[in-house]
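Quick one from the shared queue. A colleague (R.T.) flagged Carotenoid isomerooxygenase-like isoform X1 as missing a structural entry in our internal table.

Convert sequence to structure tokens.
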Amino acid sequence: MHVYDFSLRCRHCDVETLEPVVASVTGCIPEYAYGDYLFNGGGIGKFGDAEYQHTFDFGAVLQKVSVSSSGSRYMSRYLQTSTLARNQKAGTIVVPEFGTKAVDLNGNGGFFGKIAKIANYSSNMTDNAAVNVLALNDKVYAIGETSTWHELDATDLTVICKNTDLDKAGLVTCCPHFKRSSNGNVVSVGQSITAVGPKYNVIEFPADGEPPSVVARTNPRWKLSASQLHDFGLTQNYLIIIEHPFYIRFVEVIKAVIKSACYVDTFKWCPEDNTSITVIDQRTWKPLSLKFTFESLLVSHFINSFETECGDLVLDLESFTSPDVITDFFISNLRQPKDRHALDADFSESLYRVIVPLSTASPSAEIHLEAKLLSEVGFGQSKINPKYEGREYSYAYGVAHTEHDHGRVSKLTVSTGEVIHFTEPGLYPAELMYIPNPSEKAEDDGVVVSFCLSSRDARLGTLLFLSAADMKLLARVEFTAAGAVTWTSHGIFIPES
């Protein structure tokens, strides 16, 4: 029986592939899927003898696969951040990350040194942005969970400049997922720190290219703590924030800055608090007074959210039952698991549906809702046909694994819970994209594209093109990089046209 190789998530990219290499193409790629596939993810695992302890900490590696009628090419480049430059110059890790403590080359500095660190905390924060790639108003950015963006030249993946729009708006963190609202503008959710505690902020980026602005603010349910937010929901009329009971304690963040410590210890899991839903009306940008909760789950992504004919909200979510998976992402656990069964279970995401009864809810009482399983088979990195985002939909696609296969790309039929898969020995799917057929005749008339790693050869990478209707293989693009091909988090497709 095959055993899933979690250590692939720990790969270190020792050499960039700066000169694009020719890739082999087999099968038939639809013309509407021609273009550039840009991926972001942690791939720099060490500096000198110092290794990162957690996969969230790895330095960003940008990877691009270009597909056209004349062939395909691959390239990769380290994201050129100040954190990368500082670590390279020191030959060790001098900037603390989520799960890795930094080497303090200047020593503790005594009382005044601690005061200086607090006063200049931003200079001690990482600007590594290893989560996603964002295309916004004809510009492309590498982004992470913080307020730091890096504008990219999409041709060679070099950094043009560091974008400070979120800092100017007062945000210290921001969801690495962005969505287009019904008025055509792009929105996301971030956090700010005020004199009275943290705030959630909705930030809007106008379609005309004007600077972004904060259009809504709301309070966390804890006075000095805020939930860790990675994604949010958006329907035609509402924006939905999920506060799961895995939250950041900002007093502990200050302590971590003083000690040049890592940030994983600033989080706390309180399952007795349940999971809370905040609904903001886009027409006024005011939060509704209605209060909703459901069972304690660690929500990673929204699959989709939409409004029913009667005015209720449907939230389809990817969730873990606990934050144990965060601990599992420590390198030592992935390379040599102490308990394979527990690791497999912790990494398995479940798909839930929560129905929010806006049409009948009373503002006078908190309403506890039920999170129902959408399917007995779960997956992560969910994607749907983008034309159906914020609308009722039929199909979702994601990446999963079991104890019995390498990795698989799955298709869920939402109404029945039926799941079908594509899997191939030795191939490990990481990120997915859904590319719709411009002349589609059905919701699943398109291709699912998956960036895959190989367990046979660290330098071998594959881009799969699958039929969205039946998950059959249409084509593959294979390339051999100059160095290791590393795990990707999220990415974007830039069409050739």
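The chain is about 10% helix and 40% strand.
The first strand starts at residue 21 and ends at 27.
Added to the table.
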